[in-house]
Amino acid sequence: MNRMNLSDWALKHRSLVVYMMIIAVVGGSLSYFRLGRNEDPAFIIKTMVVQAAWPGATVEETMKQVTERLERHLQETPHLDFLRSFTRAGVATVFVNLKGNANAKQVADTWYHVRKTIGDMRHTLPAGVIGPGFNDEFGDTFGIIYGFTSDGFTQRELRDRVEDIRSRLLLVPDVSKVELVGEQDEVIFVEFSTKELAALGIDRSALIAALQSQNIVRPAGTIQTGSESISIRVSGSFQSEQDIANINFSAGGRMLRLSDIAQVQRGYTDPPQPMFRVNGKPAIGLAIAMRDGGDILALGANIKKAMARITADLPIGIEPSLMADQPVVVNQAIREFTVSLMQAIGIIMAVSFISLGVRPGLIIALAIPFTLAIVFPIMGLLSIDMQRISLGALIIALALLVDDAMTTTDATLSRLAEGASKIEAATFAYRTHAMAMLAGTLVTIAGFIPVGFAASSAGEYTFSLFAVVTIALLVSWFVAVIFTPLLGAAILVPPKQTSTADQGRIFRMYRSFLTFAMRAKWLTIALSLALFVCSVLALPLIPRQFFPSSDRPELLVDLSLPQNSSIHASDVAAKRLDTALSTDADVARWSTYIGRGAIRFYLPLNVQLPNDFFTQAVVIAKDVAARDRLHSKLEKLLAQEFPNAISFVSPLELGPPVGWPVQYRVGGADVERVREIALKVGQIVASSPDTKQVNFDWMEPNRQVRIRVDQNEARLLGLSSQAIATVLNTVISGTPITQVRDNIYLVNVVARATNEQRVSLDGLRNLQVALPGGQTVPLSQFASFEYDQEFPLVWRRDRIPTLTVQAAIAGDKLPESVVTSLSTAIENLRKTLPSGYSVVVGGTVEESQKSQASVLAVVPVMLFVMFTVLMVQLQSFPRLFMVLSVAPLGLIGVVAALMLSGRPLGFVAILGVLALLGMISKNAVILIGQIDAERALGKTPWDAAVDASSSRFRPIMLTAVSTVLGMIPIAPTVFWGPMAFAIMGGLLIATVLTLVFLPTLYVTWFARDEKEQPPAGARPA
Prior knowledge:
Layout: H1 6-12, H2 14-34, E1 47-53, H3 59-74, E2 80-88, E3 91-98, H4 104-121, E4 130-135, E5 144-150, H5 155-169, E6 175-181, E7 186-192, H6 194-200, H7 204-214, E8 222-224, E9 229-231, H8 241-245, E10 248-251, E11 254-257, H9 258-261, E12 262-268, E13 275-278, E14 281-290, H10 296-313, E15 318-325, H11 326-356, H12 358-381, H13 388-417, H14 422-446, H15 449-453, H16 457-461, H17 463-491, H18 505-519, H19 521-538, E16 554-560, H20 567-582, E17 587-594, E18 614-621, H21 624-641, E19 646-651, E20 662-667, H22 671-686, E21 691-696, E22 702-709, H23 711-716, H24 721-732, E23 735-742, E24 745-753, H25 755-758, H26 761-765, E25 768-770, E26 776-778, E27 783-790, E28 793-797, E29 800-809, H27 815-831, E30 838-842, H28 843-874, H29 877-886, H30 890-901, H31 907-936, H32 941-966, H33 977-1006
Parallel strand pairs: 7-24
Antiparallel strand pairs: 1-3, 1-4, 2-3, 2-28, 5-14, 5-15, 6-14, 7-12, 8-9, 10-11, 13-14, 13-17, 16-18, 16-19, 17-18, 20-29, 20-30, 21-29, 22-27, 23-24, 25-26, 28-29
Helix pairs in contact: 1-14, 1-17, 2-12, 10-11, 11-12, 11-13, 11-32, 12-13, 12-17, 13-14, 13-17, 13-32, 14-17, 14-28, 14-31, 18-32, 18-33, 19-30, 19-33, 22-27, 28-29, 28-31, 29-31, 29-33, 30-33, 31-32, 31-33, 32-33
């Protein structure tokens, strides 16, 4: 009884508490405007890319000598989940993927470990390997992208301007990184005819050596005098392509000018580097990333001002276009959520005013801004931005945080009605309900523990839901026991009606129904259990989903040509796609990435690495409805116009990226056997009417020309395979022989044969190869030519060749449903597989299962915390059992609401179901506490149950109705809709059952030895 009463303390220190209220409001208002704004919560992309090159090696050689060696050491990486690699001829790329439970510090330490490990083993790689290089900034998000097109300017002139703009934008506050997209490096080509060189008796290697020796940068010494130091510089370095063309060199006792025997011209990398187009026009992109913890809205405003000044200085003909504008998306999202928040506040206030009256309603309404005003500074201290998850959490918490204020206000009114003074009435709630409210609050928070501590990317993505709800609920308890009593003492007056006989019709109906339910207790209990069993049985009928698609207007259009296609073929296909998009009325603008995927302009984007055969377009429709129309039209267009390409059209994803919705990974040691099994899996997937566009991430081999050198003949001629390969590479692809230092650029000088000799197989046969004595012979004299096949690339997972069968969804089915329908056929195929070969479900279903498993893994912790809090509060096993028996009954409402609304049971909805356990338990704890309080006054269990349920009917129902109605603003949203419907349906049904089933269960348990009928004074009202 000596326990401190915070409400009493607040009333005795009114001035201090009022001062705290003022500080809270002022501090909260300032914090609200200073909180960072972003589209999605920051979460770490736990992937690092390790890449090495071995020019000239085949796919098989690269895989065994480079990829295998790298993977063998990378498998020792701490926190490793799996390795995934793809190998092309001469290039090995390994993705190091860490487990979801690795935190930010562990991730940073692991990347250092990877660098150190690879650095230590680098000497074991074959001679001639370039790298390995590392990219641990795979998750950088470039939320603002400008595309610069030009009319009347060369690519170099445009790049000079864009580089200058980049330098200026790096000075803008909150900018962390600015990258160029689609720029083409300049090259100076020295093209010669092998026949002409042979006719003139010119040694190609001597020519190259002359160029290299003249263009070096070497110290020529320093003269030290008595007063100064003078450096000596030797001229000769190339300043332009003309300097190269004018060089003279000695050949066969005579001086020749290079331009007389070769064409010297400046161009761009051939084949081109990945290209970028804006609305079908060649462009250079400028992608801007924000620093961690920055405000994307402030960044957008600063960039807009800077670009306005920059654009004013641009010459006519260079035009910037804004292709990705995350600040606008975030501003719109925050505005929509703010409106939803205001609507929820208005709904809750309206419920309070209508049900309780103006004065009590005003107290509950004031509890909302006071609570939010304290929540915002705490969010700032914990670096929680205003983003999709935290804003939704505020709306969810909003409906919950008025619960304690309602309980306090209702108890104060009840005490005033009994004739108590305002001070006594205001402190009464703390004495009777404070600990029960705190226990209920902690139980509700415990329901969100799986959200906060799920060790997965999805759990990290939704962590701020747990954090914000926890902060809001704890703050709301303190507001209810400190601020609310003070407001109650100042605002409330004794109610005019003090008799329960004068209560409204709804109350009388409830009391009558409760009495009937308690009389027919076995029927009530049986019916409740039957409904619960039915809901469990109906659960499989609800479609499953991981995360829904975004409601942004973008569409991603992936176009993969056969994997031996050149970037020129991808460019031709991209131009055809651009032409189609330019005539579609639903398209607002679009950007096209040729030879690579889009840069990460959106955090959950499934980024594709550069590949010549791949093109990705980011199409922005005029609105979401236009996006849906465009989606259908593009799928038909791509199927008709690009039959030899693998195309995939999809809206942006929410949550961790997964790519193709249906995926099966086929793994095994032998590549050909893996290919055969994958074809069988593809046939099974294609047999489903719910799938379309079945494809493989690698499958078809490509052609190659194999030159078989007669080694004996070559040695007689004084040649080696190395010398022959060097000659061929120089002639066909070109070899960088030196560099021209041009302003901030290094321009490679590339020696190669003329165009007609490079692309013709006949020209290759007649290629003149220089002999040590100065003579030349055709290549066909000591080599034969034949066609061969090899895979252009091979994917591996944990060092095992792995081929992924991929498919899109036909119709409205969800990936989980499609995979379930295919499970029997896939399982039958698995039984026929030889040892060491496997077929594993991937994609959306796998990621969903991993995320749900990470949540379920924390459920025991949630239950332990709940049980402990409940036991501390109730200190009775029977009472604990009653609370736990009521909590799962919310599933009845969850299943009914999701089935009626047609919403899927996804990751976010599951989080809502878990949170429901806490909400329902809170009401049950307070109701049992009230029944026990009534029994302490000498009442029988029956009378205590009826009277306690009657007294708690209004606050419990008002809280439930407020919560349900408060969810209405977010119920239509794509992301929060399933959770909103789950909570609305589950809480509504569970509240009714708490007010009917729980008293019935209580009486059944505790009135076993008493006469089980209502006393005379307990007749229905």
